[in-house]
Amino acid sequence: MASSHDGSVINHPTASPTKPSFFRSIPFQIAIACGVSFTAPGMWDALGGLGAGGAAEPYAVSAANALVYGLFAAVCIAAGAINNRIGLRYGLALGAIGYPIYGAGLYTNNVAPKTWFLLFGSALCGISAGFFWAAEAAIIIGYPSPKDRAFYLAIWQTAKAAGPIVGGAINLGLNAQTSSKGSVSSATYIVFIVIMCLGLPIALLLSPAEKVQRKDRTLVVVHKQPSWLAEFKAVLSLLVTKRMLLLIPAFFISYFYNGFMSTWLTTYFTVRARAFSSFFTNFSGIISSFLIAGLLDRQSIFIKTRARIAFASIIFILIGTWIWASILQKQFYDAEEPPVFDWFKGGFGKAYTLIFFWQFGGQAFQQFLYWLVGQYTTDISSLSYHCGILRGFEALGQTVAWAMQSEGNANHFVSIGLNFGITILCIVPTWIVLSGLEHSHEITVTAGEVSSTKDQDPDAKA
To answer: In this record, what's one Pfam family (predicted)?
Structure first.
């Protein structure tokens, strides 16, 4: 362990052996993080994929989700500093606690509506998940070497999507005979809650950052501030930098579509059509994640060019989906009665394809933003701050989006217009940030350099 000039502490792990331990390797760490993502937020997303958490009416659940994301936004920004002090393993474990309680709240709301317990579960989930979101993003981006980040981001997005896919298969099996609108069966919730409970023990298997062993023998550098107050000051200093302020509109809008997509599903689709969507739609996110990873990790293309091509492609898709949504919504409002789509029956294709491409573009945009902030971080601690801010403003956007959906008579064109407008608004500031992207800023430290430093540093511990 060595001290920097500003008094902060840099943890240098022991030099990596010639053959890295499997349990300290990057693939194992990513597998653990993905396992928790599958069991906790993956199952949470599966419930969301049903529309309104599987309920018959979206409004109470939309209000609960607004509460989740409101607490999320407040906790997530601070969690970057807290996770840096307690360690990402414990931040991940702490974050997994709230998900099964949220699932229990949805279950009780479905069986015998108890709004207080739904809101309690939502509040607890919002607080704990703030730690989870900040930790998992820092692990997925910070543990691998910079040249492998987009690939592992795609693996992570696949694990996140696998939760809703498996959950969607469960939904489909339990609700395939329900060809009307309404709520899903109670057994659906019980299965999800059991799976969500596995997140905590899996999270505790993660290795501390300073013990992780990369294949190229570079190390994960942990740069802790000398005090808790200094950690929070570091987050605040980063938040007010020009680059982060320019990226806030992109962070805010990146998941804004999700609330409206849930209401759209609940309003216009039967239960089994929603179950089909919760199963199949996530494949679109997997496809877009690997497509964007193939571009962003292509070292033969200059990094700025890669970033610009990826961003322009994503924006083109997102704008296209909101134009498409405007056309369909006009048709639905002009109809004598609001349409209700059952799977593979009249009009289902044109309405469902929009949902598929919402997810396709939305997941690609999220992955791009994670990759982008990773290029500007110097170590895992800096990355923890960046991810906390990114996910905090992402959660703030979802808070607004879900709050808008909690009103029973909300005009859908308002949601469509806001999504379209903020997407347009984020283009110029994000492009300015991309224009300054020249290379990865991560400090590269090898095991050999650590051994040499320890020989010279009287403060270093063997």
So the answer is: MFS_1
Range of the domain at 297: 22-209+216-456
Does any domain span residue 3?
no
9, part of any domain: no
| Residue that is written with structure tokens 């015998």 in the block | 112
Stretch among 60-69, 153-162, 314-323, 377-386 having the lowest mean pLDDT: 60-69
pTM over 0.90: no
Tokens coding 428 = 């110029």
Domain membership of residue 13 (yes or no) is no
Contact 98, 126 (CB under 8 A): yes
Residue with tokens 């990790």: 297
CA 341 to chain centre: 29
**Per-residue pLDDT tens over the stretch 185-209:** 677 778 888 899 999 999 999 999 8
Proportion of the chain above pLDDT 90, given as a percent:
43
- Determine, yes or no, domain membership for 299: yes
Q: Which residues pair with 120 in a beta bridge?
A: none
pLDDT per residue as tens digits for the range 334-356: 998 889 998 878 889 999 999 99
Q: How confident is the model at residue 458 (pLDDT cuts 50, 70, 90)?
A: very low
Tell me how far apart the alpha carbons of residues 198 and 48 are, in angstroms, rounded to a whole number.
19
For residue 270, the model assigns a pLDDT of: 86
Q: Which of 5, 43, 1, 53 is nearest to 402 (CA)?
A: 53
What would you measure as the largest C-alpha separation in the chain, in angstroms?
81
Helix-, strand-, coil-residue percentages of the chain, each rounded to 5:
75, 5, 25
Supply the DSSP string of 170-220, one letter for each residue. HHHHHHTT--SSSPPPHHHHHHHHHHHTTHHHHHTTPPPGGG-B-TT-B--
d(CA 141, CA 274): 32
8 Å CB contact between 276 and 172: yes
Contact 67, 74 (CB under 8 A): no
Question: Which residue in the block uniquely carries the two structure tokens 């971080």?
Answer: 377
CATH of the domain at 129: 1.20.1250.20
